[in-house]
Amino acid sequence: MNALMERSVLREHAKDVEKPSPIRLLLQRDDVTLRVLEEVYEHPRYGFYGDWGSPGSQRLSAPDGIQRELRECLRSSVQAADFAPVCDRILGLLDQIKKEKEPLQQKEPFNDLRDPEKSLLIDIFQEIDPTHTIARQKALQFANIIKIKHQDLLRLQVENAKAATWTRWGTAGTIVFGILSLVLSILTIKP
After folding, report:
1. So what's the pLDDT on residue 167?
2. Which of 70, 84, 118, 165 could form a cystine bridge with 113, CB 3.0-4.6 A?
3. For residues 96 and 125, is the Cβ–Cβ distance under 8 A?
4. DSSP state of 178
């Protein structure tokens, strides 16, 4: 009986101990590269909104996730005895990510958009003189507004589908109760 309780306590303790991510394990090595981190990075499952991005936008999402995890590692290692080398390693990787993301963002700034809007914005963006930074920035802001509106539209479509289901159930219930009340009123009329 004692061994059974001991195994149960060990199982509960194992659930409490969080398994370190592959990125955290790799940061303990001196020879870690950004390419290796990208390969071991586990993309989170986004559910409803996660599958409407293009492959280019998915290529941009890995560095964003790696950046978040690297910053979290940096924050959690502040009290560590070997903070200086870990800090240098993490800051170097963060700088590499920043350098890698810039050309990707400049190459295709409208990756997350669907086709009619995307092709129009790319054409407009190419026609804007690169020295007109304000106009280019406004085009990017317009693209972000379109993305947000698209997400809102998808959310409303899901809500409308739920409302349509409830409407069908309500209509069916009204018909059933109407027929039931008609049958009961006919039965009460006959002696």
Report:
1. 94
2. 118
3. no
4. H
